[in-house]
Design a protein that fits this description.
There is one protein chain. The protein is of the alpha/beta class and 275 residues long. 53% of the residues lie in helices and 16% in strands. The radius of gyration is 19 Å and the shape is globular.
């Protein structure tokens, strides 16, 4: 079988690094284009080969996306998958957010992935095949106090992903959006070091591992669903809250207390493990 070509953004750490490592162990099946704004971290994690190309990519910049797409086609001739994983959060209550965070959070979590989805989508539509898998968040399924900018951006990414999936499906191109709960990555480590009430709702549910996301990627590639929510029960709870947001007026304070208690327990456990 001819090897398929996959672009992975955010490949220097966390979910992207794990997924790239998984596919790297199947060199006869996948050619990889690994991209990240963190060039040093990317080159520390991976080495370029005949079948692996490394790219500096600030996902906010159209010209860097275009260079990545052109290089991929020049070397491998086609693009089978785009894993739009890169993103990041700056949690804070809305009035505490510096104005520059509005640009940064929206650009990194919505504008950048949409630029990539459009450019790579155009290539796939010309080919007549391909799949784009966008990583959003359960925070995008319902309003999330303390993380309003991230919630807005990921909600926009989810909506755009599903809309494009419906537009392109009959032309041979699939789009799947994966919305996970909190994943144990370097972002979570920042919460443990300095997070307060603003991250409380993030710690009211499951803590996923990068392996959970790996399983979701395989499912997305196999079944090509419109969306996958992790865990499923939290997805339904988030959608219920979206239908009736007034529920949050009643649930926010007890959920915040629960989240802060959980966060304190994790901090204590991690500190204990480090001793």
């Amino acid at each position: 079988m001819t090897a398929r070509t996959a672009i992975i953004t955010g490949a220097a750490s966390g979910i992207g690094r794990h997924w790239a490592t998984v596919l790297l162990n199947q060199p006869d099946k996948y050619h990889l284009i690994l991209a990240d704004v963190n060039q040093a971290g990317l080159h520390q994690a991976f080495s370029p080969t005949e079948f692996v190309r490394l790219h500096a990519l600030d996902i906010r910049l159209l010209e860097q996306w275009q260079n990545l797409a052109d290089d991929t086609l020049d070397h491998f001739g086609q693009i089978d998958f785009l894993f739009n994983i890169a993103g990041g959060g700056r949690p804070a209550f809305f009035l505490d957010q510096p104005h520059e965070n509005i640009d940064w959070v929206i650009d990194v979590n919505l504008k950048g992935p949409l630029i990539g989805m459009k450019l790579i989508g155009e290539v796939m539509l010309k080919q007549g095949f391909g799949q784009i898998i966008n990583v959003a968040s359960l925070a995008g399924l319902s309003p999330t106090p303390g993380n309003s900018l991230y919630s807005a951006a990921k909600g926009g990414l989810r909506n755009a992903s599903i809309a494009a999936a419906i537009e392109w499906r009959k032309q041979g191109v699939a789009v799947t959006v994966i919305s996970p709960d909190l994943v144990d990555t370097p972002i979570m480590q920042k919460h443990l070091e300095s997070g307060g009430d603003e991250v409380a709702l993030t710690y009211t549910g499951a803590i996923l591992s990068v392996v959970d996301l790996e399983k979701a990627f395989w499912k997305a590639m196999r079944d090509q669903p419109l969306e996958i929510n992790l865990p499923r029960w939290r997805g339904w709870l988030a959608k219920l809250n979206h239908i009736n947001p007034a529920l949050m007026l009643l649930l926010y304070e007890p959920m915040k207390k629960r989240g802060m208690k959980h966060l304190a327990q994790i901090r204590q456990q991690r500190l204990g493990d480090q001793k």
